[in-house]
Amino acid sequence: MLFNSISFLSHFIVFYLIYYFSSNRIRKYLLLVFGVYFYSQWNLNASFLLFISIIFNYSLANYLSDLSGKKRRTFFILGITANLIYLGVFKYFLFVWELFSDLKIGFGFPGLEWKPEILLPVGISFYTFHNISYLIEVYDKRILPCKNFFTFVIYDLFFPLLLLGPIERPGNLIPQIESEQKITKENIWNGISLFVWGVFIKSTIADPFSRYVEIQAQGFESLEPGILWIVAPVIAFQVYADFFGYSLCAMGLAEMMGFRLMNNFKRPFFSSNPSEFWAKWHISLSTWLRDYVYIKLGGNRHGFFRENANLMVVWFLAGIWHGAGHGFVIWGLYLGLCLVLYRSLKHYGFVKSGNLFQSVLGVVFTFYTFSLGLLLFRIHSPSETILILKNLSHLPKLSSIPLMILVTTIPLVAFDLWQEWKDTDRPQFFISTKPFSFLIMFFFFFLWFSLFSPFGKQDFFYFQF
């Protein structure tokens, strides 16, 4: 069930009416049942795999709390390793298998004829990181392990963020599950506003842009020279509208139920440098990698060279996390190099803060650096990198710029500008308990959707990760 579908909306309305009028104790069971039902709609077998992960991590965290010394550390390492193997088998085994087959062919041996069929559970990268952060927090004694099994199941099966995040920290979500959910009119109107805005930008920007990209970038060798200078920003807005749209839907649904999720995006396209950009894009993943990988490796505590080496390790892992393929690895290393280059320029005094011209130039450069990097997601073999570079060696024709694309982005850019002007920490419509303001906003969205959005639904972009 996609958030932007009649099927999900009809199911959620029935669920929410029962949830709203139920006691707090009953609400917990409703969250559990709807979470199981929601995830099982994607694949029933994947639900069993998720429950295996839930039982393992719940049991291990409680066992860790009774241990100390070397034994505690040993079981903690085994737990993290088991989660990574679980993720690796389902997400990366086929890639390694095909790579091994290609290597055999390269050395003159016959390739592997048999190819295993392995199910890739939806959202496995997100809920595995969810569980790893839980084990780390318990091991570091920042939180106590859940004694109530159902609380932990709800933590892992909380349906607004189950498929695509944000990768919510256990220290934020579990206490909310354990406490009483108080639902105010402000919760309801703000939640509905966030959900409607999320569905709107998904339907009117992400889906049409996705179709444009598929038409333009089916094969790099047959593209019009220079067209990737135009296609790359379209991909950037497609991914942003798609993932930001999902995050807004998740935040909105949670808020309607009395929960507050972390904000996953904070106007990243206004960032003037790569460091700022990754502090505002996919914030839950960026901070997860910072806290659980970068800092654990030593962070910036061992000199400038070691700091940059740690960054490269983090972004290599970020690339692999996004998917098993040549393009994802190259993408991670590319972004790591961009960050290292910027930090080196800043370290040696080539970048100065407070320079308006440099800031504006930085916004354009940062946006295009990110946009061009997204082309790497579409690489199926290293040789296609050369085709991308050859295409980018030409300038595009002005006639190739699709006017409809520029017009379609207006609501999203205007909204982000408004939020930037208000300097909000999380998306806000400032309508709270004013239904009339909401109806005006809703009418504008519906009108824009009717004018510009072709009908037809696309899966959320990050489902593949």
UniProtKB/TrEMBL annotation:
- What keywords tag this UniProt record? Acyltransferase, Cell membrane, Membrane, Transferase, Transmembrane, Transmembrane helix
Q: How does it sit in the membrane?
A: Multi-pass membrane protein
Q: Where are the transmembrane segments?
A: 6-22, 29-55, 75-97, 118-136, 148-167, 226-254, 311-336, 356-377, 398-418, 438-456
A single GO molecular function, which one?
acyltransferase activity
Q: Which GO terms describe its biological process?
A: alginic acid biosynthetic process
Its annotated compartments are:
Cell membrane
The record's principal subcellular location, in a coarse class, is membrane
Choose one Gene Ontology CC annotation of this protein and give it: plasma membrane
Name the family the entry cites.
Belongs to the membrane-bound acyltransferase family.
Which named protein is this? MBOAT family protein
